[in-house]
Every structure is written in C-alpha cells, then in structure tokens.
Amino acid sequence: MADISAPVKLAYESLRYYLETGKKLQVPENLPTELTQQAGTFVSLKKSGQLRGCIGTFQPTQSNIAAEIIEMAVSAGTQDPRFRSVRLEELADIEFSVDILSSPEQIQSLDELDPQKYGVIVKRGYRSGLLLPALEGVDTVEEQVGIAMEKAGIAPAEEVELYRFYVTRYH
Predict the structure, then answer these.
(1) Which of 7, 9, 97, 100 has the most CB atoms at less than 10 Å from its CB?
(2) β-strand partners of 119
(3) CA angle 151, 157, 159 (to 5 degrees)
(4) Is the pTM of this model over 0.70?
(5) In degrees rounded to 5, what are phi and psi of residue 129?
(6) What is the pLDDT of residues 127-157, one digit of tens each?
(7) Which CATH architecture has domain 105-166?
(8) Nearby residues of 29 by Cβ (< 8 Å), 6 or more positions away
(9) Chain-centre distance for alpha carbon 122
C-alpha cells in the first residue's frame, strides 16, 4: 500500500480497524496538510469494478478531513443501505477512492454544469440529492441532474435549486 494516497490509505486503515475491533480509528497525529482542513468528503468502495458502498457529506461534519474520512469509510463499509456490510475477509478485494469536495456554489442554469468536471446538488425544500462528477455512465448534464433528483425523491417536473462543486479524487 506504499504507492496509494494518504486519504485512501486512511480510509482503508479506518475500515480495517473498525472491522477488526468494532471501534473507530483515532485521528492520526502529524497529518498531511491536505487532511487538516475541513471539507465535505465521500468514500467510495468498489469490488470487481462494481460499487460496494459510498457514503459522504457535502458539508464538513468533523473537525478535519482526516476525521471525515474515518467516519465515511466506516459508514461506506457498514451503513450504506444498498449493500450488506463489508466483511474483513473481503477487504483485500475492495478498491477505495476518496473525494474531497469544494464548497458548493449555487448556479442558475444547467449550462453552468459539466458532469465530467462538476458534481451537482439539487434541492427542493428539505429534500436534496447529490451526484459526484466523472461517474461511469453519466455523460450528460440532464442524466446527472435527473439521477440527483431521483435520489432526493424530487419529481422530474419540480423546480429545484442547483449547486455545483469540484472534487479532488484520490485513488
């Protein structure tokens, strides 16, 4: 694991530690600079190229990105309602990625989106949905916004507020 990024290494170690002990890993000391800031963070797990778990927040909920990664890695592995919990014996077969999000900015038009460059957040009242950028099979702005609206339970004809954000993706 020497050639992987610090965020991905922390995500892997966090989930492994939790699966072994039932406890959350403490935030390590002497963090790399990119993990000391605050930002929304997603951890995605894939097994054999297929999604195995993905949990995150678009606004920070922890004191720093390292703490966000620890929380999201455990949640992606054990709390994603679409999947059964990851088992320790399958951990070696799982690929991790960590997305660190910029602050969302409100936009007025679909013309301000690009599904390869920006993630999108749609909001209507208390309902909101988010879709990360550069996802396989999501090639148009309309597909990206439609999936985010579906995730939020927002009907296609309903008006929504739109937000976009950048992602720094670590593998």
Answers:
(1) 7
(2) 165
(3) 80
(4) yes
(5) -140, 150
(6) 999 999 999 999 999 999 999 999 999 999 9
(7) 2-Layer Sandwich (3.30)
(8) none
(9) 16
